[in-house]
Amino acid sequence: MARGSWNRFWGILFVVLWLGGCTGQPTREDAELRFWNGFTGPDGATMERIVKQFERDTGIRVKMQIIPWGTYYDKLVLSLAYGGAPDVFICHANRIAEFARYGVFRPLDDLIAADKGFPVEDFLPNIWQAGQYEGKQVGLPLDCHPQGLYYNQKLFREAGIVDAQGNPKPPQTWEEFLDAARRLTQDKDGDGRPDQWGFAFTWLRTNWITFISQHGGSILSADLKRAALAEPPAGRATQQMCDIIYRYRVAPKPEGFDSWMGFRQGRVAMAIEGIYMLSSVEEQRGLEYAGAPVPSFG
Questions:
Q1: How many domains does the chain have?
Q2: In this structure, are 56 and 106 located in the same domain?
Q3: Is 155 in the same domain as 230?
Q4: 178 close to 248: Cβ distance less than 8 angstroms
């Protein structure tokens, strides 16, 4: 399964320091860090636990502000330009160069070198390097979230999609996926409209990147200098996604349908999402779910 380098990096989140923040040498008793992020979903609970643990371990207070991703970067840019910027904030890998060009980040190399126990080797080289700009480490990898297939085990068993031992069997190929989605799409009340869908698109941004990557394409060219949206892989991926809805009719139209809620409530059998959604299904009572690699679509 071919993947462009940009596609590998877009979903990596970094913790970065503002060059103008963290000034002075406050004592632990009065130290406070302003921390901005966009974790409004289930991942927000995880970040709250991380922050509380940091406060307990260091005695430093953290004033965390959670801003929806839709407006996050607009507010961040304004704060950096006109004042009120956070000391620490989250930045996606594909925005690193944009901010670094303006000297926003405080390079971390000296801090990392001073901490002899800092486990740089724990990070995959490509993930670590994605936080570098012109040879300097400007961000620490926080969250790299490849996509996976969530599936409803109960619905799989009811549809007979099981292995020799009777365990739910997630699809591994396009053909297996389509067969499973057809069997799992059901009109239970006979009104001509499915009450249960085999599959549903969730976040179209990540879903589309997953499909285009599997067809050997990318959003940008390999040198990152031009868009690749009109290239054949992008066309094949987009057509395949449309076919799932309009040709094979195993997924609802994304508009007006809360796909993830549908999965949580047992009305959708399969969905492609990241680990950041895990806590939302863990708290759903009675949901028999499991995860598997995304089937090979390309």
A1: 2
A2: yes
A3: yes
A4: yes
